[in-house]
TrEMBL record, chain A:
InterPro entries (alphabetical): DRTGG (IPR010766), Ser_kin/Pase_Hpr-like_N_sf (IPR028979)
Domain DRTGG: 5-105
Organism of derivation: Eiseniibacteriota bacterium
Protein name as catalogued: DRTGG domain-containing protein
TrEMBL record, chain B:
InterPro entries in the cross-refs: CBS_dom, CBS_dom_sf, CBS_domain-containing, HATPase_C_sf, HATPase_dom
Source species, domain of life: Bacteria
Protein name per the record: CBS domain-containing protein
Keyword Transmembrane: no
Entry-linked Pfam families: CBS (PF00571), HATPase_c_2 (PF13581)
Matches recorded under Gene3D superfamilies: CBS-domain, Histidine kinase-like ATPase, C-terminal domain
Keywords, in A-Z order: CBS domain, Repeat
Length: 118, 317
């Protein structure tokens, strides 16, 4: 699935990310509001779907090596977050959907966690 | 994603370049009192298809090969450039961003623009699409080389330095409750380790441990100093903070144990996973804390040939 298709599926608004970057593909997703859970993954996800909208969202993605972020529930995103996303070369978008619906739709389109269940 | 990342870099370059960086400065100009016959010779000799018309260093018009053809197709025997030129032509300023210049090329479909000094309004250069491409390629080449040199220098530093013991120290100051900067030290450190050529899975483990530790300090302590000692066989992170300390260190190592107030949870942390995450990423950790004074955390990750792969159970304490 390309990031552009993610944008369409979630009716998301792209806050940072060049046209060419939206052609990039995603296969694995980390979803959650707890950044420690995102950090503790054994594999690097392509996309982070989260209801947390602050500087730590961007920093966590950077540290965890995740290249794109969807903020859910239409949470406001600060200009500093967008600046940081630009600095770190991350794609950043926001959708009005709740985490459950956004994750469900992406699952239905074939995206997975990318991790084996313990 | 590697290719698209390069495209983004190109866009950034575009926003850094100004017209003056890529324009041609030794502009061939003609005077309005010269003849069209002279213009024909000048265009041919210099292999150009248009040129600014200047009186002194004052721009008065633009004349192109299209104007020349129109003149040749007419019945006129001779004419002055001043009568055939486009007077008051569109121009660019030398301090304009190159992206804006490109937009102007797109909007007008002109092949060239005279460039004026923004203060004196004198003609100082000319910009063509060819010059834009040339300038962009030059800037990309330069940026690419600079990063290559940085990477090369950094990744060979241990080989190039001769000593009995070789270590690099990176030190970062942390400020409590500064949430805009929280995590900055860890992301900077991560970038440095990439340049040093450290294995990506090791960088990942260290970055996660360091970020969790950095967040702990920013969330709970007044201030802290985070220091990375990078040696050929291991990387040791030591974070000393001044703050409330941890009452029960053994409990804090257990997943899910947390005394975090609600606002910490709203920041996306505080579920009692910080220290367990750090333990998971580390080969060795040492956690010492005195209530009311502060906490010292040491995290050791082995980087030599036999170092743990990501996903291996690291975790001794």
């Amino acid at each position: 699935m390309t990031l552009r298709e993610v944008v369409e599926e979630l009716s998301a608004e792209v806050l940072h990310g060049a046209e060419e970057e939206l052609n990039g593909t995603v296969a694995t997703v980390a979803a959650g509001d707890l950044m420690s859970d995102v950090l503790t993954r054994a594999t690097i996800a392509d996309l982070l779907v989260t209801g947390l909208s602050n500087m730590q969202t961007i920093r966590t993605a950077t540290v965890a090596g995740i290249k794109s972020i969807v903020i859910v529930r239409g949470k406001p995103v600060s200009p500093q977050m967008i600046d940081l996303a630009r600095e770190e070369d991350l794609v950043l978008m926001v959708t009005g959907m709740k985490l459950f619906e956004a994750a469900g739709r992406l699952w239905a389109r074939g995206l997975r966690t990318g991790e084996t269940r313990a | 994603m590697a290719l698209t990342a390069k495209f983004v870099k190109t866009q950034e370059l575009l926003f850094e370049l100004r017209v003056a960086d890529v324009m041609r400065r030794d502009v061939i100009t003609v005077r309005p009192d010269q003849t069209m016959t002279e213009l024909r010779r000048i265009l041919r000799d210099h292999r150009i298809s248009g040129t600014p018309v200047a009186a002194g260093d004052e721009l008065v018009g633009m004349i192109t090969i299209a104007d020349l053809i129109a003149f040749l197709n007419s019945d006129e025997e001779e004419a002055l450039i001043g009568d055939k030129m486009t007077a008051n032509p569109d121009s660019l300023f030398s301090d304009q961003l190159l992206v804006h210049a490109i937009q102007q090329f797109d909007a007008t479909r002109f092949g060239r623009f005279p460039v004026l000094d923004p203060r004196s309004r004198k003609l100082v250069g000319i910009l063509t699409k060819g010059l834009i491409i040339e300038g962009m390629l030059r800037a990309m080449e330069q940026a690419f080389q600079e990063e290559e040199i940085r990477q090369y220098r950094a990744s060979h530093i241990f080989e190039d330095m001769v000593a009995e013991y070789k270590e690099i120290y990176l030190t970062y100051e942390l400020v409590g409750r500064d949430f805009d900067r929280a995590g900055k030290a860890s992301t900077q450190m991560k970038r440095n380790l990439k340049r040093l050529g450290i294995r990506p899975d090791i960088i990942h483990r260290l970055a996660v441990a360091s970020y969790e530790a950095e967040m702990n300090t920013v969330l709970y302590a007044e201030s802290g100093v985070m220091e990375f000692r990078i040696a050929p066989e291991e990387i040791v992170m030591r974070l000393r903070d001044r703050g409330p300390g941890i009452a029960d260190v053994e409990k804090a190592k257990q997943p899910g144990y947390s005394g975090a107030p609600e606002w910490v949870r709203e920041m996306g942390f505080g579920a009692g996973m910080g220290i367990p995450n750090i333990i998971k990423c580390a080969d060795r950790i040492d956690l010492q804390s005195t209530v009311g004074v502060g906490t010292t955390l040491s995290v050791r990750i082995f980087t030599g040939a036999g170092a743990n792969r990501a996903g291996d159970e690291g975790g001794g304490t």
